[in-house]
Amino acid sequence: MSAIIKAEHLSFAYPGDGDTPAVPVLHDVSFEIEEGSFVAVLGHNGCGKSTLAKLLCMILEPDEGILYINGKDMTSEDITDEDIYDARRRVGMVFQNPDNQLVATIVEEDVAFGCENLGIPSEKIRKRVDEALDTVGMRKYARHATHRLSGGQKQRIAIAGVLAMRRKCIIFDESTAMLDPGGRKEVMDTICRLNREEGITVIHITHYMNEATLADRVIVMNDGRIIMDGTPGQVFSCADKLWEAGLDVPQTTELLWRMKEAGYNVRLDIFDPEECASEIAKAIAEKR
Ligand SMILES: Nc1ncnc2c1ncn2[C@@H]1O[C@H](COP(=O)(O)OP(=O)(O)O)[C@@H](O)[C@H]1O
Ligand SMILES: [Mg+2]
Asked: Which fold has domain 3-247?
């Protein structure tokens, strides 16, 4: 396994001007993202998640530290325009608001837009657009008007646009936050499928703890630093630390934690409701 992204000691502040002071946001952030992995990023509002995402997509540049994309040091002095182009082609982003990221009025034109900007020949674009729409399950909407789609469908179109550009790593910045439960499930199912079946590396920034339990790994940020990094089981088992950072835990974790506090012998790393119920039943039976 190789790292598609490697961050070493990244720091970043939004520069101030005459009247406003600089805003330090990220402090000494280091991690690696393995190719093909599914990583969830948690952290309260304003802790620096979107800023980090923008550094990884090279929309912003770090003040300190080194960022490697596919093994290449993007912060080096000798980096060429071609290297930057190549790295940008690997890592893409899907944003929060489904209404702000669609640019064309017809679905297939919207999905093609990014490819057209890359200067890809039109016969190739046609094929890529069809494939991308298939992957997100929206092929039959190819000629529909984008503004008439539901929020979840719009997000799937935004994902198709990123896929058509053949990106290997997609950062979802709270892409489910503005959706209703149905739309959220549609998008999460799509994200999971992209990761498992297409081998796309996923970095999913979210406030929904149940979404984070679907990842292979959870990174928790607090005030511009990484405070936890592990499997969902490892991270959520430390519920007290998450509560301290102003975050929630999955409902199953909270229930099991309360049981443990009440003296029952239960595991904390269970997220499936039925499994959670049998763990509790077992613990109660043991105590009798
Ligand atoms: N363009 C900007 N200029 C100045 N400060 C900013 C800008 N964007 C974000 N910030 C500040 O940086 C901090 C981190 O923001 P952000 O990365 O958006 O956090 P999150 O995505 O975790 O909510 C916040 O304090 C926010 O107010
Ligand atoms: Mg954000």
From this structure: Rossmann fold (3.40.50)
Which segments in the chain show pLDDT lower than 70? 1
Q: Whose CA is nearest to atom 3 of ligand 1?
A: 14
Could you give the strand order of the β-sheet that contains 72-73, starting from the edge strand earlier in sequence?
23-34, 3-14, 64-69, 72-73
| Ligand having the closest approach to the CA of 42 | 1
Domain range annotation of the chain = 3-247, 250-288
pLDDT value for 18 = 84
pLDDT value, residue 1: 66
Q: Where are the beta strands (DSSP E) in the chain?
A: 3-14, 23-34, 38-42, 64-69, 72-73, 91-94, 169-173, 201-205, 217-222, 225-230
The atom of ligand 1 lying closest to the CA of 52 is 17
What spacing in Å lies between the alpha carbon of 253 and ligand 2's midpoint? 25
Q: Which residues have a beta carbon within 5 Å of ligand 2, which is an ion?
A: 49-50
Model pLDDT, residue 240: 95
Give the ligand whose atoms come closest to the C-alpha of residue 51: 1
